[in-house]
Amino acid sequence: MDGCEANLLRRLLVRAESCAGCRFCEMVCSFSHEGRFSPSLSRITVIKEDRLGFDYPIFCRLCESCPPVDSCPNKALSRSPEGTLRLDEEACSGCGTCVKICPHSALKMGEASKPIFCDLCGGRPKCVERCPTGALSHEETEELDEGPIEVMKRLMERWGVYA
To answer: Which range marks the domain in which residue 135 is found?
Structure first.
């Protein structure tokens, strides 16, 4: 890819103003991956800012430059052609370096002391299919550069809310 081409991938997108904070996405995700309802096993995590009533799902953003892949001491993480992370379970020591270094807090340690992260459910994200408010979508887009803090500030300004 030359320097002029955009890094277009199918990514999860959030319409934060539509997120009700119901955490249904977390439940659907954990059930589809682990067979049980457990937010700690979900590959998507809804953060809440209760004072302002702001909810925002956190997930792997498929960053062009991925610090967890680059920093894994055992080279256990790699990228699929779709841009999602892959884990070589045998190579992974469970050190947690990838979890600590992700700038978006998109990875977490699963029960087997191995990192878990969004894999886009093989191209049909269950969280998108089941989001009751339509806050999540799966679209081809360039790399996302706006994080939850920037989104919250933008929405507060638009809504005339000042903290």
So the answer is: 19-158
